[in-house]
Amino acid sequence: MRTHRMTYAWYNYHMQGILLVDKPMGWTSFDVVNYVRKMVAQAEGKKPKNCKVGHTGTLDPLATGLLVLLVGKDYTRRAADMSKHDKTYEVTMKLGETSSTGDEEGEKTPVNSRIPGEAEVFVALQNFTGQIMQTPPIYSAIKINGQKAYDLARKGREVTLEPRPVTIYDIRNVRYDYPSVSFTCDVSSGTYIRSLVADVGNALKTGAYMTALRRTRVGDFDLAQALTLSGISADTLSANLRS
Asked: What domains are defined for the chain?
Protein backbone atom coordinates (compact mmCIF):
# COMPACT_ATOMS: atom_id res chain seq x y z
CA MET A 1 0.00 0.00 0.00
CA ARG A 2 2.82 2.40 0.85
CA THR A 3 4.49 1.80 -2.52
CA HIS A 4 1.17 2.35 -4.28
CA ARG A 5 0.70 5.78 -2.67
CA MET A 6 4.28 6.78 -3.41
CA THR A 7 3.76 5.91 -7.09
CA TYR A 8 0.71 8.19 -7.24
CA ALA A 9 2.60 10.97 -5.52
CA TRP A 10 5.49 10.68 -7.97
CA TYR A 11 3.37 11.03 -11.10
CA ASN A 12 0.53 13.28 -9.93
CA TYR A 13 2.15 15.58 -7.40
CA HIS A 14 1.22 18.68 -9.41
CA MET A 15 -2.24 17.59 -10.54
CA GLN A 16 -3.91 20.54 -12.28
CA GLY A 17 -6.92 20.98 -14.54
CA ILE A 18 -10.67 21.17 -15.03
CA LEU A 19 -12.93 18.28 -14.06
CA LEU A 20 -16.51 18.04 -15.33
CA VAL A 21 -18.88 16.28 -12.93
CA ASP A 22 -22.53 15.28 -13.26
CA LYS A 23 -23.76 16.26 -9.78
CA PRO A 24 -26.41 13.91 -8.39
CA MET A 25 -29.55 15.06 -6.58
CA GLY A 26 -29.14 15.50 -2.84
CA TRP A 27 -25.46 16.40 -2.98
CA THR A 28 -24.37 19.97 -2.35
CA SER A 29 -21.68 21.42 -4.60
CA PHE A 30 -19.43 21.46 -1.53
CA ASP A 31 -20.07 17.71 -1.04
CA VAL A 32 -18.81 17.08 -4.58
CA VAL A 33 -15.75 19.29 -4.05
CA ASN A 34 -14.93 17.39 -0.84
CA TYR A 35 -15.31 14.03 -2.58
CA VAL A 36 -12.99 15.03 -5.43
CA ARG A 37 -10.51 16.59 -2.99
CA LYS A 38 -10.24 13.22 -1.23
CA MET A 39 -9.56 11.52 -4.57
CA VAL A 40 -6.87 14.10 -5.39
CA ALA A 41 -5.31 13.59 -1.96
CA GLN A 42 -5.25 9.83 -2.44
CA ALA A 43 -3.67 10.19 -5.88
CA GLU A 44 -1.02 12.64 -4.66
CA GLY A 45 -0.31 10.97 -1.35
CA LYS A 46 -1.34 14.07 0.61
CA LYS A 47 -3.89 15.06 3.20
CA PRO A 48 -7.11 16.50 1.69
CA LYS A 49 -6.54 19.86 3.42
CA ASN A 50 -3.36 20.28 1.36
CA CYS A 51 -5.15 19.82 -1.98
CA LYS A 52 -6.77 22.71 -3.86
CA VAL A 53 -10.18 21.94 -5.39
CA GLY A 54 -12.95 24.46 -6.13
CA HIS A 55 -15.88 25.06 -8.46
CA THR A 56 -17.02 27.74 -10.88
CA GLY A 57 -20.63 27.99 -9.73
CA THR A 58 -22.86 26.08 -7.35
CA LEU A 59 -25.88 23.93 -8.02
CA ASP A 60 -28.62 23.64 -5.40
CA PRO A 61 -28.81 20.24 -3.62
CA LEU A 62 -32.05 19.37 -5.45
CA ALA A 63 -30.54 20.26 -8.84
CA THR A 64 -28.49 17.89 -10.96
CA GLY A 65 -26.10 18.23 -13.85
CA LEU A 66 -22.91 19.89 -14.89
CA LEU A 67 -20.57 21.10 -12.15
CA VAL A 68 -17.24 22.50 -13.35
CA LEU A 69 -14.52 21.76 -10.80
CA LEU A 70 -11.04 23.27 -10.70
CA VAL A 71 -8.15 21.14 -9.46
CA GLY A 72 -4.84 22.65 -8.37
CA LYS A 73 -3.76 26.13 -7.36
CA ASP A 74 -3.19 27.32 -10.95
CA TYR A 75 -6.87 26.67 -11.70
CA THR A 76 -8.62 27.50 -8.42
CA ARG A 77 -7.17 31.02 -8.56
CA ARG A 78 -9.09 31.48 -11.86
CA ALA A 79 -12.47 30.55 -10.34
CA ALA A 80 -13.88 34.09 -10.36
CA ASP A 81 -13.20 34.59 -14.07
CA MET A 82 -14.49 31.14 -15.01
CA SER A 83 -17.76 31.66 -13.11
CA LYS A 84 -19.04 34.19 -15.65
CA HIS A 85 -20.00 31.71 -18.39
CA ASP A 86 -23.47 31.46 -19.93
CA LYS A 87 -25.41 28.33 -18.97
CA THR A 88 -28.14 26.01 -20.23
CA TYR A 89 -30.76 24.40 -17.99
CA GLU A 90 -33.60 21.91 -18.32
CA VAL A 91 -36.38 23.16 -16.04
CA THR A 92 -39.63 21.77 -14.67
CA MET A 93 -42.08 23.96 -12.76
CA LYS A 94 -45.47 23.51 -11.11
CA LEU A 95 -48.31 26.00 -11.48
CA GLY A 96 -50.95 26.78 -8.85
CA GLU A 97 -48.68 27.07 -5.81
CA THR A 98 -45.69 29.04 -4.56
CA SER A 99 -42.82 27.87 -2.38
CA SER A 100 -41.00 29.85 0.29
CA THR A 101 -37.67 28.72 -1.20
CA GLY A 102 -38.81 28.69 -4.82
CA ASP A 103 -38.39 24.92 -5.05
CA GLU A 104 -39.56 21.61 -3.57
CA GLU A 105 -37.79 22.24 -0.23
CA GLY A 106 -39.92 25.19 0.83
CA GLU A 107 -43.30 25.63 2.44
CA LYS A 108 -46.01 25.49 -0.25
CA THR A 109 -48.85 28.00 -0.50
CA PRO A 110 -51.78 27.35 -2.86
CA VAL A 111 -52.61 30.32 -5.11
CA ASN A 112 -55.55 29.20 -7.22
CA SER A 113 -56.74 26.42 -9.53
CA ARG A 114 -56.77 28.55 -12.67
CA ILE A 115 -55.61 26.52 -15.69
CA PRO A 116 -53.89 28.72 -18.31
CA GLY A 117 -54.14 27.76 -21.96
CA GLU A 118 -51.13 26.37 -23.79
CA ALA A 119 -50.70 29.51 -25.88
CA GLU A 120 -50.86 31.66 -22.74
CA VAL A 121 -48.08 29.65 -21.11
CA PHE A 122 -45.92 29.87 -24.22
CA VAL A 123 -46.38 33.66 -24.49
CA ALA A 124 -45.64 34.15 -20.77
CA LEU A 125 -42.36 32.27 -21.13
CA GLN A 126 -41.32 34.14 -24.27
CA ASN A 127 -42.04 37.47 -22.58
CA PHE A 128 -39.10 36.78 -20.27
CA THR A 129 -36.55 36.33 -23.04
CA GLY A 130 -34.00 39.07 -23.67
CA GLN A 131 -32.44 41.26 -21.01
CA ILE A 132 -34.68 41.51 -17.95
CA MET A 133 -34.44 42.81 -14.41
CA GLN A 134 -34.53 39.89 -12.00
CA THR A 135 -34.69 39.82 -8.21
CA PRO A 136 -32.67 36.88 -6.81
CA PRO A 137 -34.47 34.53 -4.39
CA ILE A 138 -33.89 35.24 -0.71
CA TYR A 139 -32.73 31.62 -0.34
CA SER A 140 -29.55 32.22 -2.34
CA ALA A 141 -25.83 32.46 -1.67
CA ILE A 142 -25.72 36.21 -2.34
CA LYS A 143 -23.98 37.96 0.52
CA ILE A 144 -25.52 40.78 2.51
CA ASN A 145 -23.03 42.53 4.79
CA GLY A 146 -20.82 39.46 4.63
CA GLN A 147 -23.58 36.93 5.38
CA LYS A 148 -25.26 34.63 2.88
CA ALA A 149 -28.88 35.52 2.18
CA TYR A 150 -30.12 31.99 2.82
CA ASP A 151 -28.48 31.95 6.26
CA LEU A 152 -30.30 35.15 7.17
CA ALA A 153 -33.59 33.88 5.73
CA ARG A 154 -33.36 30.64 7.72
CA LYS A 155 -32.88 32.68 10.90
CA GLY A 156 -36.10 34.54 10.16
CA ARG A 157 -34.27 37.79 9.36
CA GLU A 158 -35.71 40.14 6.76
CA VAL A 159 -33.84 39.82 3.48
CA THR A 160 -34.07 42.45 0.75
CA LEU A 161 -32.28 41.88 -2.55
CA GLU A 162 -32.19 44.40 -5.36
CA PRO A 163 -33.18 43.52 -8.95
CA ARG A 164 -30.27 43.07 -11.33
CA PRO A 165 -30.02 42.73 -15.11
CA VAL A 166 -29.75 39.21 -16.53
CA THR A 167 -30.26 37.83 -20.01
CA ILE A 168 -32.52 34.94 -21.00
CA TYR A 169 -31.21 34.15 -24.47
CA ASP A 170 -33.73 31.49 -25.39
CA ILE A 171 -36.60 29.41 -24.00
CA ARG A 172 -37.44 26.33 -26.06
CA ASN A 173 -38.73 22.74 -25.94
CA VAL A 174 -41.76 23.90 -23.96
CA ARG A 175 -43.99 21.06 -22.75
CA TYR A 176 -47.19 21.74 -20.83
CA ASP A 177 -49.46 19.35 -18.98
CA TYR A 178 -51.13 21.27 -16.15
CA PRO A 179 -49.89 21.81 -13.53
CA SER A 180 -46.46 20.92 -14.95
CA VAL A 181 -44.47 23.06 -17.38
CA SER A 182 -41.03 22.06 -18.60
CA PHE A 183 -38.60 23.87 -20.90
CA THR A 184 -34.95 24.35 -21.81
CA CYS A 185 -33.34 27.77 -21.45
CA ASP A 186 -30.02 29.46 -22.26
CA VAL A 187 -29.19 32.18 -19.73
CA SER A 188 -26.44 34.56 -18.72
CA SER A 189 -24.28 34.12 -15.65
CA GLY A 190 -26.08 35.32 -12.54
CA THR A 191 -29.53 34.20 -13.66
CA TYR A 192 -31.64 32.43 -11.02
CA ILE A 193 -34.02 29.88 -12.51
CA ARG A 194 -36.12 29.83 -9.33
CA SER A 195 -36.73 33.57 -9.81
CA LEU A 196 -37.57 33.07 -13.49
CA VAL A 197 -40.10 30.38 -12.56
CA ALA A 198 -41.69 32.57 -9.86
CA ASP A 199 -41.91 35.50 -12.29
CA VAL A 200 -43.61 33.33 -14.91
CA GLY A 201 -46.05 32.09 -12.28
CA ASN A 202 -46.87 35.68 -11.34
CA ALA A 203 -47.40 36.61 -14.98
CA LEU A 204 -49.84 33.70 -15.35
CA LYS A 205 -51.57 34.70 -12.09
CA THR A 206 -51.24 31.13 -10.85
CA GLY A 207 -48.01 31.21 -8.87
CA ALA A 208 -45.32 28.62 -9.59
CA TYR A 209 -42.26 26.98 -8.11
CA MET A 210 -39.43 24.90 -9.56
CA THR A 211 -39.72 21.13 -9.18
CA ALA A 212 -36.65 19.98 -11.14
CA LEU A 213 -33.49 21.54 -12.54
CA ARG A 214 -30.68 20.03 -14.59
CA ARG A 215 -27.71 22.04 -15.87
CA THR A 216 -26.52 20.77 -19.24
CA ARG A 217 -24.01 23.41 -20.34
CA VAL A 218 -21.54 25.88 -18.80
CA GLY A 219 -19.79 28.00 -21.41
CA ASP A 220 -18.21 25.56 -23.87
CA PHE A 221 -18.47 22.62 -21.46
CA ASP A 222 -21.26 20.12 -22.04
CA LEU A 223 -22.87 17.63 -19.65
CA ALA A 224 -22.13 14.84 -22.13
CA GLN A 225 -18.42 15.30 -21.28
CA ALA A 226 -18.98 14.95 -17.52
CA LEU A 227 -18.20 12.03 -15.21
CA THR A 228 -20.57 10.65 -12.63
CA LEU A 229 -19.18 10.44 -9.10
CA SER A 230 -18.89 6.67 -9.42
CA GLY A 231 -16.54 7.22 -12.36
CA ILE A 232 -14.13 9.37 -10.35
CA SER A 233 -11.32 7.70 -8.43
CA ALA A 234 -7.66 8.22 -7.71
CA ASP A 235 -6.94 5.95 -10.68
CA THR A 236 -9.17 7.76 -13.22
CA LEU A 237 -8.86 11.36 -12.05
CA SER A 238 -5.67 12.47 -13.83
CA ALA A 239 -6.78 11.04 -17.19
CA ASN A 240 -10.03 13.04 -17.07
CA LEU A 241 -8.60 16.45 -16.22
CA ARG A 242 -8.67 18.99 -19.05
CA SER A 243 -6.84 22.27 -19.47
From this structure: 2-83+221-240 (3.30.70), 87-218 (3.30.2350.10)
